[in-house]
Amino acid sequence: MFTSRVNRLSPYLFMAPAVIIMAIALIYPLGYMIWGSFRAWDPSQTIGEAEFVGLKNYITLWHDPSFRESLGVTLRFAFFCVSIEMVLGVGLALLLDRNIRGMSLLRTMFILPMMIAPVVVGLMWRYMYHPSVGTFNRVLETLGLPDVDWLGSHALTSVISADIWQWTPFIFILSLAALQSLPRSALEAARIDGATGWQQIVHIKLPLMMPVLIVTALLRLIDAFKVLEVILVLTEGGPGLSTEILALRISRTATEFRELGVAAAMSNYLLILLMLLTVGMFAFNRWQEARAAKVRMAAEEDS
Amino acid sequence: MDQSYEKQNPAFYAVIGLLVFMSVGPVVLMFVNSFKLDVDIISGTSGLLFLPTIQNYETALCDVLWYEPDHLEFCSLKFGGAFINSLIIALISTVLTLVIGAMSAYALVRFRFMGRDTVSVTTLMVRMVPPAVLLVPVFGLWNNEFCLDKNGLIGGAIRDAFGGRGDVCLAGTHSGIIIIYVAMNLPFVIWILQSFIVQVPRSLEEAARVDGAGPFQVFFKVVLPLIKPGLAAAAIFTFRIAWNEYLLASALSDRNTKTVPILIVNNMSEFNVEWGVIMATGMLLAIPPIIFTLFASRQIITGMTAGAVKG
Of A49, A293, B19, B115, whose CA is between 20 and 30 Å from B243? Predict the structure, then answer.
């Protein structure tokens, strides 16, 4: 009698710690933030004392040119990072998908950048971009070329380069894994039919890898909206607003301008954006599974 | 697997060499610079000809060294303390996340219960929440709401024991930072471990149950040992996030609980950057992740592919 009750309760006991912690430290704060975004809230007040202002924060933000600027910077940053990383990562995977000595050592060296703290990545690149002592300008000088103002007029490009350095390996590793799990028979058949290397890539490898590639790109896109530390260390959002992505603007609005309500509304805009991406990813996954099931069914009926 | 390697043409090896140089180069550069004096870094056109010195590391670690470095009059950089804070926070939050995450992943995979779908969808959705979004509410809650009244029983006891004024709040404590890291990493860990638990044969669990083991014994003695590779992968990712995180830690920590990333950022933003010391602190922060990469790259790759391909 007792054991059966324990057994019936056990899934809840197993779930309880995770549910409690996530409720306290994720779900409740998110609700709190949504509630706070309708208030004129500054850090000296508790949220109950803050005045209710309805949608005012959202409307102010929508018409605020610097918010729009920073939204634009975020979108540009995410778009360029993800598309360049995808091209490079997939290209490298196609290039290196060969049976060569020391592949595992090579992969180890490629994942190194991803594991290092964003703060440290920012620090390394800030040194390399430094106008007088930095590596890049030193090299340019030895070659007799004029200096480049990396973190000034080319700040966004420089920041994107640092992100590409850190995250291209992620896409490389995932597409390599996808490549190596492709059905050998299809490639074999193509080779026998006399397809060139290039034809194999365009007509067989890429289409077969597509599901994994789309999921990878979406994951990377979601992550690109989370980037903050690298940019904070490299440029602090400057010069002007040229590299101030939304995450950085949220943190500055909250800590420097002390407008928690506005920062909360901004967080909500970012959250809505990411929510759309995530839902898109789920929808794609469902669709993919449904299609795979249909194909499998058709194959079974044939046999 | 056939172990014969294809012969490639030299251009291919040149490309590989270039790629390795590009990915490892910046790290090596930082490593080399952390052994240079500032004079050498600023003036030195000669990349490799210099006298290596550990002076930068002495400056960084001055508060935990057993001797006083000659070149320092005053130990201003409290790096050792921050390093210990980082270790405490990262280790405890990793262990907690793994145990709690494995338990709920097990429940989600093996049991049918009310609210299972809700929990699993919520877990997936909160995976995309960026730390910046949590900054505002967590700062507000940890400072104002998650507090114990100083006149209350437990709060009063803590105040008496540790001194200070005002209510006892989560902000500024190790536990305050740990709890948010655990919550942030849980969705990812639950997701990854699910795919490992599915592979555990049910017959093993049933055999243990027939032998009279309760659900918790089955979980801790049969399932956990079998999913060790998954746990290792999840542990590395959790540790990495907790070890590297800056934003939330900077909002929640005080003078005594600040972590290494905060210390580095604070030192960077000062006007006169001491490159040598900064590089040394950066190197010290990067050492644990580098060690993981060198010794557990297989687990890292497993974790990445399990987390993404199924996600």
Answer: B19
Q: Say if B37 falls within a structural domain.
A: no
pLDDT digits (tens, 9 = 90+) for A280-292: 877 887 887 788 7
The answer to whether position B34 is within a domain reads no
Q: What's the structural domain count of chain B? A: 1
Give the residues of chain A that fall short of pLDDT 70.
1-7, 302-303
SS3 for A191-223 is HHCCCCHHHHHHHHHHHHHHHHHHHHHHHHHHH
This complex has an ipTM of 0.83
Pairwise CB contact (< 8 Å): B30 & A127 = yes
Closest by Cα among B178, B224, B192 to B124 = B192
Q: Dump pLDDT digits (tens) for B8-31.
A: 778 888 888 888 888 888 888 888
- Partner residue facing B107 (CB), from A11, A116, A117: A11
Residue B213: inside a domain, yes or no?
A: yes
Query: Which CATH number does the domain housing residue B143 bear?
Result: 1.10.3720.10
With an 8 Å Cβ cutoff, are A30 and B292 in contact? no
Residue B196 lies in a domain: yes
Residues 89-148 of B with CB under 8 A from A: 100-101, 103-104, 106-108, 110-113, 116, 119, 122-141, 144-145
Domain that holds residue B126: 79-262+286-309
Helices B10-33, B275-309: axis angle to 10 degrees equals 130
Residue B199 contacts residue B111 (beta carbons within 8 Å): no
Task: Report cis status (omega within 30 of 0) of the bond before A239.
Answer: yes
A17-302: CATH number:
1.10.3720.10
Angle (CA) B199-A11-B106 rounded to 5° is 20
Q: Give me the pLDDT at residue B96, please.
A: 92
